[in-house]
């Protein structure tokens, strides 16, 4: 119903060089950096203040997490490919790569689920210790970000009507979703060593 | 208690370190007053002089306000003086230069909802070990019954006796939530952080009977987490310790006055009467 | 530029000029799209403002209840006491209810009142108009922000109804107390997550709009100061709120999943050892909380300074003195507000290095505040001051904000803070900043922009009554608090007369309480004025204050899409009394 034309909602602004949406997503990511930054700082503070802290590799499943890291990196690559396919004008390829991205994301969650249920099975809950508390909180919050990304990406894969009516706008949306997805990836790249390896 | 010592400004200061704090407070307030009155006179003057009226117009050209620059610079310089000339040194002297433990009266303060447990090490000069698992209705601070150091510890509730003219180190901690160890007349305030033991010291220069207050919201009984501090001569203090030393077989001292209410009870109308008598 | 009081005629005129994309007001939207789920920044702004005013008034009534207990501890409250049977059996307030009222008063005033009014209300309504934009960059997101904020507020208030009542650990929610508090605290945290999300989305929208959508010719150095204030505020919201979100998540985990992020080992609660893993750190919360909450203070102040700047410039009839200095000071203030947070924690056992660092940054941050105030004061020199109703509030803001700022000095210096920390002196200090300060600025803004939103002016006589009663009463409320604090009285005491030093200053509590109730009475003319002027106010032209900024180029009220022709900006924002001009104001949007 928005019949008010918003300037630079599709075309880049002459001075900043980007359209509104991309600007917004960068700002959003800046706030996400502060969110995860605060959580990482809390982790560091709790860990340095603790008399003893378990070695991540002794408590957590490093091979599974390594696989998950690969899965997530792959999904980032397919996300870029999806956007590139759009730029080259192939909607079918775009759909294919987007499906691959979604498959990887779902795979990530499945592996995460296996990890979680093994932990629960062994009686390891967030309340067990601050190590597990931090582990579940950080990976859980990251998991919620993954689910958010899946919802957005699935929407963009299924509803491609805009591709025909407003091609540049659609490409922008996919690019922005990609930026978000890379960020979620990046968070995992930080989480993996700091939780599992250190 | 003598209500007259408390008025509408700073109460009497009976600590040796408090002079610096009071001095800073009064310098800052004179400075604030000077600035505010100066601004205020100018403010009222411009409001009257430049009010809209027939024939009066505004000046488009910005005024050259070099005078204000001097004032601003003056403010900055004075703030720097307050900071580096007064506040930081006073704080550093107070925090970094505590009396030696061997020369001071050492007291452990264990806060809980809603009482102050005051522990003296007893004759041996050593505090008994405390641990949460030993906490019971007759052992509020959780003294380890097997620790010989704790046998002679004197435990009081809401009553801090200290000798005059001798440094006192109160090491504060908390059993449950954050409280704040606040003795206004001694210019002492320290949050009690659960999981931490923080020493805070003072040296009283006058005898008397004053108040301990909790300065940090700690629950529904925060308002009645009140204690008494009794500053007395060394002789009286020694007598107090001797009278309250635990009887030989048990580790606990009876809490002689003002029983604590660690379990939240439905509040009664707060007591208004002052039970204590002036101590002078 | 045709100046016409009748907005509808102008819309038709614009349509004739072929600005089809601006003719949104013509397609009659269904009621729910026009007024409820609206995407028009002006409707959303009004939604925010009215909701926030209701919350503010609610938060104020909580304080009025507390004030009875403080003036007459333990005495049954007449009439009202008998209605609140839960918190006040027999009309006598209970300490747990007192603590709930205190925590909720702070939370409501800050997160549900002032921020939504200053940013959501004024920012949303005025900022796009002042930059000549047709709307916010993301109208749907804007709507969404409001519809996340409102449930957040409702959830927050509903916490009074859960078992054990609302949150009662203060608006700062320090653990371990908040970790072991009743269920209301969980509701508080959930509501905070909603409110934070709303603020985050709003701030993104604001920044993008200000950067990308300014009218032709409107460079950053030609922006009205209000827009600058909103710009810096948005960055503070964007970057300071996520750490509180993180902290809220951690506290939620502590309360719901049994973690012990904020719980050290070996806690004994009411004689029972707390069964948690332990190993946490209660100060972690304070660091995360104040990392948000100090920038938050500037979120409360900066929009107010922005409003005061607009109203001052308009009523002194000359350019603001030191416009660029004001902007630089504001940006500097924004940066510095991220490195002063631990001055709220001087009494937590901080070492000398840390305390010196934070008291130094605190003294530094006072400098831009002094500069801003000085710029305003110098602007008054050589002016032609009109004492309109909004101007009265803006003028009164200056000395009261100064009191608030000055009394921050002894609190920011560690040595004097030893004595004053957590006393009523603190309460007096920050209330002078946000109540006689920010809220007076909000009133100035309401009287000032009301004609833009409705096409009518609010009644001046009622406005003056509102001003004088509020001015006298609010000083009666907060000035005595400094003396109570000086006497050493702690804050958050259900019954101050338990202490001898409290009994000494108890007469002041009676003065304060009656001032509070007088202040409440003083708001009645405002409430009546606000609603009755919608239909009964005097109709005015689209630029009734002879102002220079862009919002006065749009019809009153502006249609969906705001401007009839795309505005072009030709000059600086406050070109008043330019020599050689026929009028004493040269609007930004008029050529030549």
Describe the protein's architecture and organization:
In chain A, 79% of the residues lie in helices and 0% in strands. Chain A has 7 helices and no strands. Chain B is built from 3 helices and 10 strands; from the N terminus they run H-H-E-E-E-E-E-E-E-E-E-E-H. Chain B has helices at 18-49, 66-96, 234-244; strands at 105-112, 115-120, 154-157, 159-163, 167-174, 179-183, 188-192, 198-203, 208-214, 227-232. Chain B has a 5-stranded mixed sheet, with no helix packed on it. Helix content of chain C is 62%, strand content 1%. Chain C is built from 18 helices and 4 strands. In chain C, helix 3 runs antiparallel to helix 5 and helix 3 (41-71) runs antiparallel to helix 18. Chain C is globular. Classes of the chains: A mainly alpha (198), B alpha+beta (280), C mainly alpha (592). At the B-C interface, helix 1, helix 2, strand 7 and strand 9 of B face helix 5, strand 1, helix 9, helix 11 and helix 12 of C.
List the main descriptive attributes of the protein structure presented here.
heterotrimer, A: 198 residues, mainly alpha, 7 helices, B: 280 residues, alpha+beta, 5-stranded mixed beta sheet, 3 helices, 26% helix, 21% strand, disordered C terminus
| End-to-end gap of chain B | 10 Å
Greatest interface and its participating residue counts: B-C, 106 and 104 residues
Please give the radius of gyration of chain B in angstroms.
25 Å
Please report which band the strand proportion of chain B falls in: under 5%, 5-15%, 15-25%, 25-35%, 35-45% or over 45%: 15-25%
**Average pLDDT level of chain C:** 92
The percent range for helix content of chain C is 55-70%
Q: How much strand of chain C?
A: under 5%
Q: What is the helix fraction of residues of chain B, given as a range?
A: 25-40%
H and E order of chain C: HHHHHHHHEEHHHHHHHEHHHE
Provide the gyration radius of chain C in Å.
Answer: 24 Å
Tally of individual helices of chain B: 3
| Number of DSSP strand runs of chain C | 4
How would you sum up the major sheet of chain B? 5 strands, mixed
Quaternary structure type: heterotrimer
Low-confidence parts of chain B: 250-280
Structural class of chain B: alpha+beta
Mean pLDDT of chain B: 87
Give the low-pLDDT segments of chain C: 1-25
Counted beta strands of chain B: 10
């Amino acid at each position: 119903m928005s019949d008010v034309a918003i300037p630079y909602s599709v075309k880049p602004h002459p001075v900043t060089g980007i359209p509104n949406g991309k600007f917004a997503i960068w700002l959003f990511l800046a706030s996400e950096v502060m969110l995860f930054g605060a959580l990482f700082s809390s982790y560091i503070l709790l860990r340095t203040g603790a008399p003893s802290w378990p070695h991540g590799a002794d408590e957590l499943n490093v091979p599974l997490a390594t696989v998950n890291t690969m899965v997530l990196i792959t999904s980032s690559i397919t996300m870029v490919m999806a956007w590139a396919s759009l730029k080259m004008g192939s909607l079918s390829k775009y759909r294919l790569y987007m499906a691959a991205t979604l498959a990887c994301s779902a795979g990530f969650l499945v592996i995460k689920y296996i990890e979680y249920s093994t932990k629960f099975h062994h009686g390891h809950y967030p309340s067990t210790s601050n190590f597990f508390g931090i582990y579940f909180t950080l990976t859980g919050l990251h998991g919620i970000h993954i689910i958010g990304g899946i919802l957005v990406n699935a929407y963009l894969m299924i509803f491609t009507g805009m591709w025909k009516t407003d091609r540049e706008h659609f490409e922008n949306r996919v690019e922005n979703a990609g930026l978000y997805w890379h960020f979620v990836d990046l968070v995992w790249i930080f989480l993996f060593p700091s939780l599992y390896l250190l | 208690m003598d209500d007259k010592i408390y008025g509408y400004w700073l109460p009497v200061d009976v600590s040796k370190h408090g002079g610096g704090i009071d001095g800073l407070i009064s310098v800052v307030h004179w400075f604030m007053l000077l600035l505010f009155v100066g601004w205020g006179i100018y403010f009222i003057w411009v409001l009257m002089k430049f009010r809209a009226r027939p024939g009066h117009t505004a000046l488009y050209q910005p005024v050259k306000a070099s005078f204000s620059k001097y004032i601003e610079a003056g403010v900055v310089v004075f703030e720097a003086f307050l900071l580096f000339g007064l506040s930081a040194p006073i704080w550093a002297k107070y925090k970094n230069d505590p009396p030696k433990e061997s020369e001071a009266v050492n007291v452990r303060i264990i806060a809980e909802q809603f009482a102050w447990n005051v522990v003296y090490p007893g004759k041996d000069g050593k505090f008994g070990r405390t641990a949460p698992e030993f906490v019971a209705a007759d052992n509020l601070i959780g003294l380890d019954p097997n620790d010989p150091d704790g046998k002679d510890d004197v435990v009081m509730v809401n009553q801090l006796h200290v000798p005059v003219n001798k440094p006192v180190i109160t090491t504060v901690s908390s059993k449950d939530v954050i409280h704040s160890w606040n003795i206004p007349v001694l210019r002492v305030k320290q949050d009690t952080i659960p999981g931490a033991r923080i020493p805070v010291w003072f040296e009283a220069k006058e005898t008397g009977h004053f108040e301990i207050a909790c300065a940090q919201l700690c629950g529904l009984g925060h308002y009645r987490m009140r204690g008494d501090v009794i500053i007395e001569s060394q002789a009286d203090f020694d007598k107090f310790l001797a009278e309250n030393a635990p009887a030989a077989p048990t580790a606990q001292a009876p809490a002689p006055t003002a029983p604590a209410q660690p379990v939240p009870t439905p509040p009664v109308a707060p007591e208004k009467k002052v039970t204590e008598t002036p101590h002078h | 530029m045709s100046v016409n009081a009748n907005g509808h005629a102008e819309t038709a005129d614009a349509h004739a000029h072929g600005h089809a994309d601006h003719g949104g007001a013509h397609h009659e939207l269904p009621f729910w799209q026009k007024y409820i789920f609206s995407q028009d920044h002006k409707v959303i702004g009004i939604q925010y403002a009215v909701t926030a005013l209701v919350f503010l008034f609610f938060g104020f009534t909580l304080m009025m209840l507390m004030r009875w207990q403080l003036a007459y501890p333990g005495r049954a409250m007449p009439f009202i006491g008998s209605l609140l049977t839960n918190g006040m059996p027999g009309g006598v307030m209970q300490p747990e209810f007192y603590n709930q009222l205190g925590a909720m008063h702070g939370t409501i005033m800050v997160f549900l009142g002032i921020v939504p009014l200053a940013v959501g209300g004024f920012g949303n309504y005025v900022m796009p108009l002042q930059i000549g934009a047709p709307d916010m960059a993301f109208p749907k997101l804007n709507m969404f922000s409001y519809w996340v904020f409102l449930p957040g507020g409702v959830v927050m208030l509903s916490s009074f109804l859960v078992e054990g009542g609302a949150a009662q650990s203060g608006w700062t929610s320090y653990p371990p107390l908040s970790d072991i508090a009743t269920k209301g605290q969980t509701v508080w945290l959930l509501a905070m997550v909603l409110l934070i999300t709303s603020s985050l989305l709003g701030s993104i929208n604001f920044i993008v709009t200000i950067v990308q959508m300014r009218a032709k010719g409107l460079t950053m150095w030609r922006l009205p100061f209000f827009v600058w204030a909103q710009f810096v505020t948005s960055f503070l919201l964007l970057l300071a709120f996520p750490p509180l979100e993180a902290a809220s998540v951690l506290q939620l985990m502590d309360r719901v999943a049994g973690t012990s992020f904020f719980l050290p080992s070996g806690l004994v609660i009411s004689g029972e050892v707390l069964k948690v893993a332990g190993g946490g750190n209660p100060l972690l919360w304070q660091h995360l909380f104040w990392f948000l909450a100090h920038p938050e203070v500037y979120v409360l102040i900066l929009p107010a300074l922005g409003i005061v700047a607009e109203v001052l410039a308009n009523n002194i009839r000359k350019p603001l003195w030191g416009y660029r200095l004001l902007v630089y000071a504001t940006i500097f203030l924004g940066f510095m507000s991220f490195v002063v947070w631990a001055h709220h924690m001087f009494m937590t056992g901080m070492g000398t290095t840390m305390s010196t660092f934070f008291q130094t940054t605190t003294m530094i941050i006072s400098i831009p505040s002094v500069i801003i105030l000085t710029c305003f004061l110098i602007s008054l020199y050589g002016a032609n001051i009109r004492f309109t109703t909004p101007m009265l509030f803006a003028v009164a803001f200056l000395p009261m904000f100064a009191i608030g700022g000055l009394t921050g000095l002894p609190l920011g210096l560690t040595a004097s803070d030893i004595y004053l920390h957590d006393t009523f002196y603190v309460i007096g200090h920050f209330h002078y900043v946000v109540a006689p300060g920010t809220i007076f600025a909000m009133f100035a803004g309401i009287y000032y922009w009301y004609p833009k939103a409705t096409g009518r002016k609010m009644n001046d006589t009622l406005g003056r009554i509102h001003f004088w009663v509020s001015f006298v009463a609010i000083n009666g409320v907060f000035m005595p608090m400094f003396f109570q604090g000086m006497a050493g009285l702690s804050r958050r005491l259900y019954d101050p007369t338990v202490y001898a030093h409290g009994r000494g200053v108890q007469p002041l509590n009676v003065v304060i309480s009656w001032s509070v109730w007088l202040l409440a009475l003083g708001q009645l003319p405002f409430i009546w004025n606000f609603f009755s002027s919608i239909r009964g106010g005097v109709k005015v032209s689209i630029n009734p204050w002879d102002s220079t900024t862009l919002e006065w180029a749009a019809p009153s009220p502006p249609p969906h899409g705001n401007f009839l022709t795309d505005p072009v900006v030709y000059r600086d924002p406050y070109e008043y009394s330019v020599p050689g001009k026929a009028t004493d104001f040269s609007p930004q949007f008029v050529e030549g």
